[in-house]
Specification:
With 771 residues, the protein is an alpha+beta fold. The protein is built from 17 helices and 37 strands. Helix content is 22%, strand content 28%. Strand 2 and strand 3 form a beta hairpin. It comes from Artemisia annua (Sweet wormwood).
Length: 771
């Protein structure tokens, strides 16, 4: 009864509707909508003004649409937005169920997909309007419930006289709880073939990401000027698999609708196609939210609008802010780009602007923009390596107490950035000299910076600083997606481990350069010819067999021997595990009992018998924050002239993530008391990357993508889970000589923070295999 009372003001009599449509006359018929025919009509409102309307009459002969009828009335009476169709009223008389909408003069988007008159800029505007409507449904204001449309397609986006998109046909919609990061509903699978989310079709589980998938289909329809399912005689009948393949191969130009490619600004196309492709990801977690989709479409439109207006989007504002005392000299854009790649001072010497190798904007903001709690502790000095006229020198880095509240003004929208503190520690002149001499970045350095980001509830600590090619130390503070050129960063720099002085240059914003995925070739052992197996067997394979813990038949064939050594054998009385990799290179793993040495180390560990280890016994740390490893590699264990990596193989107790965030410092104990400063750092767990939200509205930003750091240590110290369930982290690398002799390596592994302990760490051993 409450619903009927709520909707009473929307009732329109059947007589009024018949009069408006000439009794549902053929001359007023304009098409077929969801669950019924649609007619055009004229209705007078209470003020006497005539309004053009669209009248949808449900097909009662087949009993269609009762539930959908009520759903649509409820949705459109409660949810109002400029990108949703407006419900004028309804009629429920004489077994007639009729919906009356405001008439959208340009009809549905599907009519214009293949229209050469619809420009790329117009298509972008339409998509932006549609995205705004969906974003509103997914993230309604106030206490309204989230709406999952369930039938997103080009036919359900209507266009008004200004070509503004409006979402229609809510009969299949479902509602879910408001203000929740995740909403999923189990329902009978409905929707339109070609647009329906495959995961929804398979599981019946409906989420807002199901609408995102369908919207991605619409975006590719707009780009390619065709429906997602073609005619039966069409060579490429299904658009989406074709679009995905084309995007992955970089051949989108082959399927873009004729005439559009010539209109497009390159970054506009790149931004649009990228977000459309992301919408179609198989895993829901990898799909963007509608907030992210809307931001990308607006950026694509910004690129296109700037391109069409003839105003250069690049460099004009930057050049106006360049240092007037040192004017830039260039004769063409190539020379200008070269100058900007090297970098220039702007904003009265407070910023350093440069271009990345992909010509994305980079920005370094001077430490002169920081707020120091005790200005008297700061000495402003020139520095030969700095890009600014002065840098901030602090006598002791032990206590910093620096408030940073800065804004960028030049970043490239749509790009993921990392923010880095740029500094030097006094006494690091040797490191800088090495960088200058070799031209490559130096070893990572232990610094231990504690800081607090405004958008992160707890303080953070970063132990290791990387060294850039120009000799500066950098520590990554956070990462973010740049939605606008102006991005605000607020962070409080508390202290470091260092008692020495520190020189602060500023905070630099650099685009994330995503690392390439290493795709190793999997060799099917069973398909390798016997002759090739014999070639891959090491020359001393008979000596290796003699070292095996378990007896190997003397008459074993080369084929079986190769398979045996590929799978691995225990040697050295069960204290070593020897195997060949896919290229026939020797590899081995040494047990914890054979490598953990020294009285202090042995007192810190106790031994556990377990079937989960190749060796039947592992070592668990009971106390202490350091231990020694002594490796003894017999000559048969290693291949000549080969670059190897040495890995610690271990596991951690459950629910222990917070205990092991501090990395291990790995030092060669043979040089431990020498003047050598060479050391590596090995992480026991993946280091957390703070990804902050730079959008200042009430949208749902829960699915900011996970990002990888821009700078890496010289070794791959990112811990990984192995196929056998253990963890491994790279702790050193080495190279064998042309003639392999017995190799020995001695290491001290200690937590970078002496206040912490390694209690609970379980060591299986160390493994050496090719880099």
């Amino acid at each position: 009864m409450a619903l009927v009372k709520e909707l009473e003001h929307l009732k329109i009599s059947l007589d009024v509707i018949k009069l408006a449509t000439n009794g549902f006359g053929a001359e007023n018929f304009i098409g077929v909508g969801g669950f019924g025919k649609v007619y055009k009509g004229e209705i007078s409102d209470n003020g006497g003004l005539t309004k053009t309307v669209a009248v949808k009459r449900l097909d009662r002969r087949h009993g269609q649409g009762d539930h959908e009828f009520l759903t649509e009335i409820m949705m459109l009476s409660r949810y109002r937005h400029k990108n949703l169709v407006s419900l004028i009223g309804f009629c429920d008389e004489d077994d007639e169920k009729i919906l009356v909408y405001e008439y959208e003069f340009n009809g549905s988007l599907e009519k214009y997909l293949s229209s050469e008159d619809l420009t790329w800029c117009q298509r972008l505007k339409i998509c932006i309007g549609a995205a705004r409507g969906l974003e509103y449904l997914h993230n309604p204001l106030g206490t309204q419930q989230r709406v999952l449309h369930r039938d997103v397609k080009s036919a359900n986006f209507l266009l008004d006289h200004n070509w503004e998109a409006k979402i229609s046909d809510f009969g299949l919609s479902r509602i879910g709880p408001a203000n929740q990061e995740f909403t999923f509903l189990v329902s009978t699978v409905v929707g339109t073939l070609g647009y329906c989310d495959p995961l929804y079709a398979e599981t019946g589980i409906l989420t807002k990401e199901s609408d995102v998938y369908s919207f991605g289909v619409v975006l590719f329809e707009v780009l390619c000027g065709r429906f997602c399912i073609g005619k039966h005689d069409d060579e490429h009948r299904l658009l989406i698999p074709l679009a995905q393949r084309s995007y992955e191969k970089g051949t989108l130009d082959d399927i873009i609708f004729r005439g559009l490619r010539e209109q497009m600004e390159p970054y506009s196309l790149k931004t649009f196609s990228s977000v459309a492709y992301q919408c179609l990801k198989r895993d829901r977690e990898e799909r963007p939210t509608m907030v992210d989709v809307l931001s990308a479409l607006e950026l694509a439109f910004e690129y296109q609008e700037s391109y069409e207006s003839g105003k250069p989007m690049e460099y004009e504002e930057i050049l106006q802010m360049a240092d007037r005392e040192h004017p830039l000299v260039y004769t063409n854009k190539r020379e200008l780009t070269s100058l900007l790649t090297s970098g220039i001072l702007v904003d009265w010497g407070r910023r350093w602007f440069s271009l990345s190798k992909n010509e994305h904007n980079c920005e370094l903001i001077s430490a002169s923009e920081f707020s120091f709690q005790d200005p008297d502790m700061i000495e402003w000095i020139p520095h030969p390596r700095s890009r600014f006229s002065e840098v901030a020198k602090i006598e002791s880095a032990r206590e910093l107490n620096i408030e940073v509240d800065i804004e960028t003004i030049f970043l490239s929208p749509g790009i993921t950035y990392a923010a880095y503190l740029v500094f030097l520690i006094d006494g690091s002149e040797l490191q800088k000299a090495e960088v200058e001499e070799t031209g490559v970045s130096g070893n990572p350095q232990l610094v231990g910076l504690t800081y607090k980001l405004k958008e992160v509830s707890e303080e953070s600590i970063t132990y290791i600083a990387d060294i850039t090619n120009d000799g500066w130390m950098i520590i990554e503070l956070c990462q973010f997606i740049c939605y606008k050129k102006v991005t605000k960063l607020e962070v409080f720099l508390e202290n470091t481990f260092e008692y020495n002085g520190i020189v602060l240059e500023g905070i630099q914003f650099l685009p994330i350069e995503k690392p390439m995925n290493d795709e190793s070739v999997q060799v099917e052992k069973a398909n390798i010819p016997d002759t090739e197996r014999e070639q891959k067997l090491p020359d001393d394979y008979r000596d290796i067999i003699k070292m095996a813990k378990d007896r190997v038949p003397y008459n074993i064939t080369n084929k079986d021997l190769y398979l045996l050594l590929s799978n691995g054998i225990l040697t050295n009385k069960g204290q070593a595990f020897f195997y060949l990799d896919k290229d026939g290179i020797k590899c081995c793993m040494l047990s914890a009992s054979s490598v953990l040495k020294g009285s202090e180390t042995l007192e810190s560990f106790h031994w556990i018998s377990t079937s989960e280890s190749k060796f039947g016994k592992v070592a668990e740390c009971l106390s202490g924050n350091s231990f020694r490893i002594n490796c003894h590699f017999n000559s048969y264990m290693l291949s000549p002239n080969t670059a190897y990596a040495i890995y610690l193989v271990y596991t951690l107790p459950e629910n222990s993530r917070g205990m092991y965030t501090c990395p291990l410092q790995v030092q060669d104990s043979d040089r431990y008391n020498s003047t050598s400063t060479e050391c590596f750092f090995a992480n026991l767990i993946a280091q957390e990357t703070h990804v902050i939200n730079t959008i200042k509205d009430d949208g749902d930003h829960s699915q900011i993508p996970e990002l990888k750091p821009l700078y890496r240590p010289k070794i791959d110290s990112i811990p990984k889970e192995r196929k056998d369930g253990w963890m491994e982290t790279q702790m050193w690398n080495c190279k064998t000589d042309e003639v392999v002799s017995t190799e020995r390596a001695h290491f001290v592994l200690s937590l970078c923070d002496p206040r912490l302990e390694l209690t609970g760490l379980i060591v299986q051993g160390i493994e050496i295999r090719p880099l």
